[in-house]
Design goal:
The structure is a single chain. This protein is α/β, with parallel strands linked by helices and 399 residues long. Helices cover 42% and strands 18% of the residues. Strands 3-4-2-1-5-6-7-8 form an eight-stranded mixed sheet. Helix 7 crosses helix 12. The longest helix is centred in the middle third of the chain and has 21 residues, at 150-170. The chain is globular, with a radius of gyration of 21 Å. It starts with a strand and ends with a helix.
């Protein structure tokens, strides 16, 4: 079977978890005997072709990466038409090519198109769906608020007007792979056909954690790894840490990651007098993040929006780190009994749960022990086989 995957970026131009998952799945499917071509739009000097770990990668230029759903529509449509002769199945990843895939099907495209639903960009222009609605005024307010400059703020108005057309096209592809049951529920709520959506969670190579090494350290290390932005709830974690820091002088909060609010969080730590107890590690490579996982006593995911998945939870479980998650989106269902949940946005509840696990060493050991069993449900090989079944079903459906 010939699979053509399309996305905005591809290795080594990895932007986030969705691109990393696409890379892992492309390489995994090649090992299963499939021929995989990845078409990305991250070239800055014309069309570039290369082969990476058995995957043929074709990079095209894109005029702009602003308004990604719109800017990718025609380039993705043209690419789908161009590679129609060699593709048995198309697989779109990271949401933003969705409208181009829908346009291809609307214009009579012959090959099946499958799209990964790994965020809420199919019905929310900023992908977080934090407010449960998306009328014009909500779209415009969200886009304007998240704009980085004057040009983006001006573009917010026309993009808010045209976005419903992008949403309409997004509903036209043949199959969807949702990363969690919650994501499927959200898309179904917004009018996507439920029977077209198959849930296949993100996955990880569990063999990588067969012989984990725990770093010896003094004190209590509380770890967060992710984007420094409002939706991730980092300010809630800092507030909760402030509540417990005086009682646990040897506790440290380690924040790994970059994002638009990084400097704001640094200032917040300074205002709370915690600059010596909160470590801002910034964006780090896999080797350094593995070190932080290995030295962590507790991992916290404090999201205040309906987090679609959270690959860091799998990494934390791989390192057998007990987990605290907010009770939103898919988080509780991912960690199951390897974690404890707290009320979203509630710093006091988070602080009480931190105290619970810090004081109860037996509870920490229980959570750590359960993580291996839970993680086994997210093994790469299970995901690859499930994806191949979706490809075969979609291909047969289009014959």
């Amino acid at each position: 079977m010939n699979v053509v995957m399309l996305g905005e970026y591809y290795k080594p131009n990895l932007i986030g978890g969705a691109e990393i998952q696409a890379m892992r799945r492309a390489e995994g499917l090649v090992k299963m005997g499939l021929k995989v071509i990845v078409v990305s739009f991250d070239s800055n000097r014309g069309t570039i072709e290369e082969t990476i770990n058995g995957v043929k990668v074709i990079r095209h230029e894109l005029l702009t990466h602003k308004g990604r759903m719109l800017s990718l529509s025609l380039p993705v449509f043209r690419a789908l038409k161009k590679y129609e002769a060699v593709a048995d199945v198309y697989h779109l990843y990271n949401i933003y090519p969705l409208s181009g895939g829908g346009l291809y099907k609307l214009m009579g495209g012959k090959k099946p198109v499958i799209a990964s639903l790994d965020n809420y960009g199919g019905f929310c222009p900023i992908s977080t769906a934090m407010y449960g609605q998306c009328d014009f005024f909500c779209r415009y307010s969200c886009l304007k608020r998240t704009s980085n400059n004057a040009a983006e703020r001006i573009f917010s108005f026309p993009y808010s007007c045209i976005y419903p057309a992008m949403r309409y096209l997004s509903k036209k592809v043949d199959r969807y792979i949702a990363v969690s049951d919650h994501v499927k529920q959200e898309y179904t709520h917004w009018g996507f056909d439920s029977y077209k959506i198959i849930v296949i969670p993100n996955s990880i190579d569990t063999r990588h954690f067969a012989n984990i090494h725990k770093e010896m350290h003094d004190g209590i290390n509380i770890l967060y790894l992710g984007r420094m932005e409002e939706a991730k709830g980092v300010s809630i974690l800092i507030a909760a840490f402030k509540m417990i820091s005086k009682s646990y002088e040897n506790a440290k909060l380690i924040l790994v990651g970059d994002g638009p609010l990084l400097n704001s969080y640094r200032m917040l730590a300074h205002q709370h007098g915690l600059e010596n107890k909160i470590i801002f590690a910034g964006h780090q490579n896999q080797e350094i993040t593995s070190y932080y996982y290995s030295s962590a006593d507790i991992f916290v995911h404090p999201a205040i929006f309906n987090e679609p998945f959270g690959i860091t939870l799998l990494e934390a479980m791989g390192h057998q780190v007990p987990i605290l998650v907010s009770d939103v989106g898919s988080l509780k269902n991912i960690v199951k009994d390897a974690g404890i949940s707290f009320r979203k946005g509630d710093a006091k509840d988070l602080a009480s749960k931190l105290i619970l696990v810090i004081e109860n060493k037996e509870k920490l050991r229980e959570l750590s022990k359960r993580s291996k069993q839970v993680l086994s449900e997210y093994d790469d090989q299970l995901a690859f086989k499930a994806i191949l079944e979706v490809y075969n079903d979609a291909k047969e459906g289009c014959l």
